[in-house]
Structure formats: structure tokens, C-alpha cells
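Customer escalation, tier 2.

The customer says the design service returned an amino acid string that "doesn't look like it belongs to this structure." They asked us to rerun it and document both sides in this ticket. The original C-alpha cells are below, unchanged.
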């Protein structure tokens, strides 16, 4: 479970194998008439691969992150060459025009929005010369996010793409660097949505989950609240964490068929739980009795999923990104 140059090259190779693979493809696309029946590459010239738009975006986040961390890994030069072809002003203009359409108001909300912001944050924070090209699209999604936060009275607690806590966590990196007012709004909304939650039952996993609603909520609070405030909240939210309870939360999910896209989500659940457990333990600090329990749970979840990030396209088009989150946590 070590992230080194060899592992980086392997993971980059997985992503390079799908970010320009147009088919099979699942579009998030509303058609108003026959003219809207168009191919993924025509609709989204930057993010047409990886089975769906959001997976292509976070495939690119993985590629940009690994090229920064390990600039000489075996696939880094290939990554940089493909990025120069992909991130152009003309292609960004097409993506922005698509997003500006009235029927695209709910496009990739909020999961894809958050991944796009995380991608741009990665590129900008590491001085990637292509980040100014992507910035206008990031600003568009930040505005969409701002409108959503102003209008949603309730969070979305699903274990899949709609989860608002996960989107808050991913977006926080971008907001911290580019829009502190948005970051403050995110913290305000996190308190409004989650601050009163106590004694989480952790009725999970479900058969379509790649996120833990329980841990994503905790991670959002850990990301957006001052550490002392978070620690106080966490003790009431998961008061028996040091005893590995609720047990369902600390037990890695069993994946029975990795060729089934929904069941394969559970490998992602194990990886995203591992990521969350590690970050929560770090925020709680070494003196907290729950921290070593969370770290052990993280190791168990990551070990259960990491060998399976490639092999069947149902998981291969996205799992490496979640493994990178977990390994870097």
C-alpha cells in the first residue's frame, strides 16, 4: 500500500487507458430535440472518455497529481503531452457553452462539479501552465455550487454521486485557494446540514454505494470546521468509534461481482472509507483514543480494494482515483 514512482506509473497507465476511450459511455445529457443527439466527443471535447464525464475529470486529476508528485515516473511525459492536446481554450469554450444551456442546470450536480474544481485546484496549486486555460470553467462550476448552496435546505445523504458532503470536501481545496467567500458559505451550510446529527446509526453499505454517508459527513465537518469544534462534534456523532461501533461502518464491504458496475461500487466504498478514516484520524490527533482504531480500519479497507483497481472496466474507469485519495490521505 505504498505510493511510489512505480505505483504512480501503474495508476497513470490505467487512467491513460481510459481518459480518451469514448465508448462505452453513459451520458448525463438532456435532449430538447433531434439536434441534441450527439456523440460524447462532440458534446465534451475535453472529457469524453472514461465511461462518463465525471470519471474522465477525476481520471485527469489523478494524472495531473501523479505527474506533479513523481515528475519522472514512466508515464509522466506521456501525460504531459496528452494534457497539452486536451486542455485548450477552444475545448474549454465548448464545455462552458454546454454548461450554460438552461437544460444543463443539473449537469453533474454536485459530484462532477466538485471533481472539476479539485482538478483545477491541483493544476493551479502546482503551477501547471495549463491551469489558466481551465480556470473559466472552474469559475462557472463555482457559481453553480454557490447557487446550489443558497437554495438547498437539506443535504443529500446518498452513498453515490449526489452526496453533498463528499462534494463539499472535494471543493474545499479549490475554494480555499480561489474563493474564500465560497469556502465560508460551505462551512455555514455544513453546520446547518449536519451540526445537530448525533449517534450515527451507519445503516450501510447499500448495494450501490461507493461513499459512506456517515464518514463523508464527518469528513466534511473535519474539513470545514476548526479542529476543536470538529472534535467536539465528532464525539457526539460517533461516540463509540473507539469500540469499532457501529460495526457495519468498520467492516470492509464484500464485493461479489466486479463485472457489475453497481456491485463494483463497493470497491470504491472501501477506498473512500479508507481515505476518510485516515483523514479523520489525523484531524482527531494522536492523543484521541479513536485515532488508532480509525487508522486500523483504514488499512483494512484499503487492503480489501487496492488489488482490484484494474481488471474489469466497470471499476477500472474510476477506481484508481479513489485509491490515490486513500494512499495520499
Amino acid at each position: 500500500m505504498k505510493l511510489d514512482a512505480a505505483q504512480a506509473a501503474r495508476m497513470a497507465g490505467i487512467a491513460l487507458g481510459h481518459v480518451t476511450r469514448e465508448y462505452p459511455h453513459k451520458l448525463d445529457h438532456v435532449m430538447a430535440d433531434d439536434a441534441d443527439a450527439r456523440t460524447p466527443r462532440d458534446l465534451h471535447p475535453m472529457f469524453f472518455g472514461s465511461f462518463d464525464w465525471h470519471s474522465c475529470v477525476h481520471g485527469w486529476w489523478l494524472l495531473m497529481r501523479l505527474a506533479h508528485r513523481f515528475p519522472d515516473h514512466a508515464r509522466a511525459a506521456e501525460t504531459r503531452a496528452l494534457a497539452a492536446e486536451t486542455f485548450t481554450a477552444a475545448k474549454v469554450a465548448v464545455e462552458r457553452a454546454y454548461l450554460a444551456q438552461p437544460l444543463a442546470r443539473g449537469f453533474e450536480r454536485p459530484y462532477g462539479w466538485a471533481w472539476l474544481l479539485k482538478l483545477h485546484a491541483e493544476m493551479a496549486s502546482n503551477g501547471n501552465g495549463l491551469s489558466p486555460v481551465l480556470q473559466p470553467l472552474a469559475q462557472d462550476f463555482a457559481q453553480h455550487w454557490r447557487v446550489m448552496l443558497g437554495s438547498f435546505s437539506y443535504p443529500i445523504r446518498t452513498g453515490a454521486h449526489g452526496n453533498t458532503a463528499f462534494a463539499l470536501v472535494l471543493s474545499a481545496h479549490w475554494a480555499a485557494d480561489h474563493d474564500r467567500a465560497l469556502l465560508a458559505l460551505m462551512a455555514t451550510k455544513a453546520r446547518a446540514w449536519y451540526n445537530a446529527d448525533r449517534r450515527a446509526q451507519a445503516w450501510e453499505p447499500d448495494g450501490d454505494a461507493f461513499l459512506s454517508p456517515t464518514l463523508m459527513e464527518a469528513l466534511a465537518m473535519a474539513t470545514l470546521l476548526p479542529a476543536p469544534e470538529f472534535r467536539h462534534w465528532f464525539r457526539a456523532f460517533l461516540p463509540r468509534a473507539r469500540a469499532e461501533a457501529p460495526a457495519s461502518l468498520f467492516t470492509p464491504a464484500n464485493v461479489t461481482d466486479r463485472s457489475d458496475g453497481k456491485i463494483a461500487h463497493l470497491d470504491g466504498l472501501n477506498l473512500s472509507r479508507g481515505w476518510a478514516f485516515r483523514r479523520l484520524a489525523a484531524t482527531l490527533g494522536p492523543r484521541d483514543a479513536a485515532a488508532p482504531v480509525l487508522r486500523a480500519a483504514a488499512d483494512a479497507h484499503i487492503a480489501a480494494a487496492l488489488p482490484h483497481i484494474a481488471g474489469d472496466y466497470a471499476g477500472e474507469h474510476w477506481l484508481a482515483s479513489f485509491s490515490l485519495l486513500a494512499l495520499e490521505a
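Tier 2 assessment: The sequence is consistent with the input. The longest helix spans residues 261-284. The chain has 16 helices and no strands. Sent an explanation to the customer and offered a walkthrough call.
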